[in-house]
C-alpha cells in the first residue's frame, strides 16, 4: 500500500512474527517502512536475502549492495507503508548508534576519495590474462599432443585460468566494475557461464545471502554443511546433542581436503548450471572441450586433463574462500551492526603482489564484506581507514599470513569435530 502521507509505525510492530514470515515481510530502510512481501518474488538477488532482514532495519545492507540507489528507490516507492514514529530509534536490536554513524561517515569518505570508481585497465588486463592462459593451454595440446609434461602444463594453465576467471566473475557479480549494473550483469553471465560453466542466477541467490548474514547459522548457506561438516563452536554442540551423525565429524579436519573439492564445488556448480542451461551461457562452456575432443581425437586424455584441472581449481577456490570464514565466529543471529557482524565473520590475509593475485584480492576479505561494490584494486587503500575505525570502537581487525590462515582452517575443523564428539557421546 502506498500512501502520500506515510503513517507512523512502531518498530515493535516490525518484530512481530506477522511481518517477518514468508508472505508477510516488512523492512526498514532509512526509517521508512516497506512491505516487500510480493517484491521478494522479483528481487534480482533472490527472495531469501530480503527474508533474512524481514522485521529488521535493512539500511546498512541496502546501501552496501546497491551502487545505484536512485534506481532501486524507484522500485521501493510503491512499497512504502509508513515511517518509524519520531520517538523510535533508528537502530533496532540495541545496535550501537555510534558505530553505525561512524561507519556511514567512513563510507562517505571513501566515496569522496574515489575508491568506488573503477580502473577499467585493471579488469581489461585481468580478463586478458585469463583468455591468454586458456589459449596457451589449447595451443599446447593442439601443437604438441598429450605427452605427460605437456598434459601437466595444460592442467596447470587451465586450473589457473579457471581460478582467475572465478575471481573475475565475482567482481562483475558484485556490480563493482561498470557504472551500469546492466552491463555488470551481462558480463557476469558471460564470464561465469562461458569461462566457468556455472549459473549466474544460482551464484547471485546464494552468494548475496552469505554477504547479508555471514557465518549466521540458518541464514548463511556457506555454513549450512551438516551433510559434510559441522562448523564453529555452537553448531557442533547442538548437532551432537541431537545425535546427528551424517559423517564422522571428529575426523572432518582429515577428510576436508578431499571431500570439499570436486564433489561439493565443481559438481554442485555444474548441476545448478544445467538447470539454467537454456537461458545462460553454460552451453558454450560445454562446446569448448567437446569441439576440442572431436578435432584432436584425444577424448580420454583431455577429459582427464580437464577433470584434474577442475579438481586443482576446486582446491584453490576452497582454501582461498574458506581461510577468511571457517576459523571465525559462527553463531545464530546476533543482530549486530554491519561493521561488527562482518568483522566477527571475516579476517584478512597479509597483502603482497602474490597474495593479491592468488586470492583475487579476497585476502582483503574485511574490506570486501564491508563494501561489496568497491572495485577490488581499491581495497588496499580503504584498509587503513577501516582498521582505524575498528580500533576506535574496539572491534577486532584480524590479519594473518597465508599459511597461518590455511592452518587455521584445519585447526578450526579439528576443534569443532571434538566439540561435536563430546556432545554426541556425553550430552
Automatic annotation (TrEMBL):
Translocase found in the keyword field: no
Cellular component, GO, one term: membrane
Protein name (database record): Cytochrome b5 heme-binding domain-containing protein
Localization: Membrane
GO biological process: fatty acid biosynthetic process
Record-linked Pfam families: Cyt-b5 (PF00173), FA_desaturase (PF00487)
Coiled coil: none
Keyword Oxidoreductase carried by entry: yes
CDD domains per record: Delta6-FADS-like
UniProt-recorded Gene Ontology molecular function terms: oxidoreductase activity, acting on paired donors, with oxidation of a pair of donors resulting in the reduction of molecular oxygen to two molecules of water
Listed pathway(s): Lipid metabolism; polyunsaturated fatty acid biosynthesis
Family matches, as SUPFAM superfamilies: Cytochrome b5-like heme/steroid binding domain
Keywords: Fatty acid biosynthesis, Fatty acid metabolism, Lipid biosynthesis, Lipid metabolism, Membrane, Oxidoreductase, Transmembrane, Transmembrane helix
Membrane topology annotation: Multi-pass membrane protein
Transmembrane spans: 121-142, 255-278, 290-312
Record domain Cytochrome b5 heme-binding: where: 18-85
InterPro entries (UniProt xref): Cyt_B5-like_heme/steroid-bd, Cyt_B5-like_heme/steroid_sf, FA_desaturase_dom, Fatty_acid_desaturase
Family of the protein in this entry: Belongs to the fatty acid desaturase type 1 family.
Amino acid at each position: 500500500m502506498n500512501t502520500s502521507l506515510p503513517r507512523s509505525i512502531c518498530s515493535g510492530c516490525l518484530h512481530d512474527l506477522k511481518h517477518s514470515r514468508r508472505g508477510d515481510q516488512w523492512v526498514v530502510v532509512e526509517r521508512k517502512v516497506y512491505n516487500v512481501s510480493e517484491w521478494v518474488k522479483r528481487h534480482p538477488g533472490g527472495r531469501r536475502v530480503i527474508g533474512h532482514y524481514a522485521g529488521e532495519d535493512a539500511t546498512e545492507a541496502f546501501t552496501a549492495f546497491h551502487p545505484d540507489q536512485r534506481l532501486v528507490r524507484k522500485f521501493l516507492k510503491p512499497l512504502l507503508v509508513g515511517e518509524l514514529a519520531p520517538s523510535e530509534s533508528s537502530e533496532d536490536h540495541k545496535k550501537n548508534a555510534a558505530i553505525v554513524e561512524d561507519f556511514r561517515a567512513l563510507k562517505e569518505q571513501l566515496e569522496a576519495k574515489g575508491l568506488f570508481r573503477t580502473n577499467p585497465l585493471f579488469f581489461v588486463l585481468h580478463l586478458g590474462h585469463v583468455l591468454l592462459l586458456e589459449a596457451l593451454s589449447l595451443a599446447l595440446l593442439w601443437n604438441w599432443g598429450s605427452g605427460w609434461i605437456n598434459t601437466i602444463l595444460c592442467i596447470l594453465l587451465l586450473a589457473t585460468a579457471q581460478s582467475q576467471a572465478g575471481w573475475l566473475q565475482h567482481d562483475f557479480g558484485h556490480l563493482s566494475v561498470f557504472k551500469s549494473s546492466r552491463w555488470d550483469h551481462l558480463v557476469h553471465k558471460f564470464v561465469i557461464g562461458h569461462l566457468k560453466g556455472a549459473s549466474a542466477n544460482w551464484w547471485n541467490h546464494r552468494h548475496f545471502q552469505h554477504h547479508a548474514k555471514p557465518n549466521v547459522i540458518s541464514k548463511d548457506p556457506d555454513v549450512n554443511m551438516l551433510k559434510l561438516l559441522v562448523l564453529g563452536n555452537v553448531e557442533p554442540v547442538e548437532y551432537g546433542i541431537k545425535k546427528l551423525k551424517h559423517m564422522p565429524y571428529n575426523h572432518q579436519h582429515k577428510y576436508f581436503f578431499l571431500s570439499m573439492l570436486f564433489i561439493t564445488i565443481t559438481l554442485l556448480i555444474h548441476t545448478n548450471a544445467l538447470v539454467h542451461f537454456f537461458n545462460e551461457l553454460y552451453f558454450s562452456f560445454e562446446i569448448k572441450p567437446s569441439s576440442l575432443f572431436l578435432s584432436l581425437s584425444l577424448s580420454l586424455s583431455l577429459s582427464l586433463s580437464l577433470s584434474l584441472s577442475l579438481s586443482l581449481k576446486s582446491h584453490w577456490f576452497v582454501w582461498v574462500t574458506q581461510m577468511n570464514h571457517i576459523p571465525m565466529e559462527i553463531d545464530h543471529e546476533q543482530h549486530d551492526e554491519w561493521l561488527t557482524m562482518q568483522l566477527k565473520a571475516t579476517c584478512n590475509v597479509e597483502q603482497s603482489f602474490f597474495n593479491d593475485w592468488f586470492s583475487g584480492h579476497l585476502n582483503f576479505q574485511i574490506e570486501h564484506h564491508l563494501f561489496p561494490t568497491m572495485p577490488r584494486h581499491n581495497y588496499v587503500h580503504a584498509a587503513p581507514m577501516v582498521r582505524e575505525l575498528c580500533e576506535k570502537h574496539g572491534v577486532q581487525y584480524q590479519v594473518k599470513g597465508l599459511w597461518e590462515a590455511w592452518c587455521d582452517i584445519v585447526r578450526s575443523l579439528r576443534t569443532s569435530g571434538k566439540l561435536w564428539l563430546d556432545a554426541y557421546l556425553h550430552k
